[in-house]
Design goal:
It comes from Sphingobacterium spiritivorum ATCC 33861. By secondary structure, the protein is α+β, with helices and mostly antiparallel strands. It has a single domain, classed as FAS1 domain. Helix content is about 20%, strand content about 20%. Strand 6 and strand 7 form a beta hairpin. The protein is globular.
């Protein structure tokens, strides 16, 4: 299934994520360069959007990976909460009294599962940023063995921010291919088999192109579901 994008304008001005719950998804950057490592940038975020993300990184022992040269498409706390909500819905099909919390995650996820669930968002040794991207999808190896993700840029057609933007805003997408890569047909993506269940999983970045001292950071939208989990 495809992620629906909800555009909410929080402030007028710079292309930036200016509020925690209502991001401007316009391809903007929060701050082009930060004088700290990727891990420290996430941990010191002024709105604490990555507290759960950092907790999972620590549990998985992936601080060194996150701080290595590469590109990190970061799932924030909302993305992880979305995952937990889906897991809770699943367990409640068996027993409505059951909950699925972060403690449940740490209980049932093996160390390797935790590593893979964060590692799939990290592209090692490649600093994937705006100059490298186009509407054509580019494939990148992740830190998880035999798993690749695709990245592209798209313009937000039909949206000009009430004249704020002099040109169409562009956004970065992180894509997980399901079966065969989707085809763009008349402005819409379709699976080659026409089966809607095989549509690729696509997530937009609400903030992109942050350069830390160790790599590049793109922050996935609050609507993203961690691990690209779908409803069963």
């Amino acid at each position: 299934m495809k992620t629906n994008i909800i555009l909410i304008l929080c402030t007028i001005g710079l292309f930036a994520v200016s509020c925690k719950k209502d991001p401007v998804i316009d391809g903007g950057i929060h701050q082009a360069k930060v004088n700290m490592t990727t891990y420290d940038f996430l941990k010191s975020h002024s709105r604490n959007m990555f507290d759960t993300t950092i907790l999972i990184i620590d549990k998985a022992g992936l601080k060194d990976l996150v701080n290595s040269r590469g590109t990190f498409f970061v799932p924030n706390d909302y993305s992880i909460a979305n995952f937990l909500a889906l897991k809770q819905a699943e367990v409640r099909k068996k027993d409505e009294r059951l909950n699925y919390t972060l403690d449940s995650l740490f209980k049932y996820f093996t160390p390797q599962m935790l590593k893979d669930s964060i590692g799939l968002y990290f592209i090692p040794e490649r600093q994937v940023n705006w100059p490298d991207l186009a509407q054509t999808w580019s494939e990148y190896k992740t830190s998880v063995s035999n798993l690749t993700l695709w990245v592209n840029v798209e313009s937000l057609d039909g949206y000009n921010g009430s004249g704020i933007f002099s040109e169409k805003p562009k956004v970065v997408y992180l894509n997980k291919v399901v079966g065969e890569k989707d085809l763009l047909v008349n402005g819409r993506y379709e699976d080659p088999t026409k089966d809607p269940k095989k549509l690729d999983l696509r997530s937009v970045c609400q903030t992109s192109g942050i350069e830390t001292t160790t790599g590049i950071v793109h922050v996935l939208a609050n609507t993203h579901i961690w691990t690209f989990k779908t409803i069963n």
